[in-house]
Amino acid sequence: HSHLLGIEPLTPSDITAILDLADQYVELNRRDVKHSNVLAGLTQVNMFFENSTRTQASFELAGKRLGADVMNMAMQASSIKKGETLIDTAMTLNAMHPDLLVVRHPHSGAVDLLAQKVNCAVLNAGDGRHEHPTQALLDALTIRRAKGRLHRLSIAICGDIAHSRVARSNIMLLGKMENRIRLIGPPTLMPSEIGAFGVEVYDDMAEGLNDVDVVMMLRLQKERMDGGFIPSEREYYHRYGLDALKLNHAKNDAIVMHPGPMNRGVEIDGEIADDINRSVIQEQVEMGVAVRMAAMELLARNRRAKSPEVMA
Ligand code: CP
């Protein structure tokens, strides 16, 4: 692959290759071996048109740990604010010969469009409600390490599915790896194309969580509910917020996940989020750095193989 735009084009063996390499980086990161020259001489530009804590920080750390020159574009201070289009901005950067472009954008499909216009490898750091591939990969690595496998698991994805690129990428990845996927949430927050996903749908947490191995919570994404129905936080927490009582329906060793940023007391009880025996939320963040290191290394290797004179 020349880019990482989504999970959709990846095969199960592509996914396994990224996770296997990421596993090696987890061990190196833990042993404080945080520098290599895998991306030495390459320039990585991060363009975030939407807020980010985890994704931007981990892409930056991942690039630096692999020896790339990393530049974070301050999009609030960029010429986008003067009316320049996304494509003109991208073409301008392209003329400076970056090797890796990491892009987050509020519009679904914007990152794919940009990838068609530039010469470098593009990594999607989240586009609208479309895809967030590195999030799904880091979630997959977290699950694989916690459960010892990434197939034949019962996985519940809960909450605001309709507005979630995290859910879309996870449904695709976990489906490709042959897991049983349940979506739990209010019918108003289920996507219209749900029939195409091959998943089970529930609007009752107790029923949907029955005997699952993995409970993946999602943030209520009010910023994407433009003009639509916004549930009250109290009512939402009562029906769909993960608390100890609801979690009791899952398997005894079920893990609890959340991609962050998390709204405590809205979609998840703070005590559950902090329970180190159940919650793997901090592991997810740790896996994020390793997965992004692996994804960038594989793309750089692929580009070197295609044009060795350019990326010697
Ligand atoms: N999970 C995630 O994408 O978090 P950020 O928005 O902080 O990057």
UniProtKB/TrEMBL annotation:
InterPro entries: Asp/Orn_carbamoyltranf_P-bd, Asp/Orn_carbamoylTrfase, Asp/Orn_carbamoylTrfase_sf, Asp_carbamoyltransf, Asp_carbamoyltransf_Asp/Orn-bd. Residues 3-144 form the Aspartate/ornithine carbamoyltransferase carbamoyl-P binding domain. GO terms for molecular function: amino acid binding; aspartate carbamoyltransferase activity. The keyword Secreted does not apply. Catalyzes the condensation of carbamoyl phosphate and aspartate to form carbamoyl aspartate and inorganic phosphate, the committed step in the de novo pyrimidine nucleotide biosynthesis pathway. Belongs to the aspartate/ornithine carbamoyltransferase superfamily. ATCase family. This is Aspartate carbamoyltransferase. It comes from Roseovarius albus.
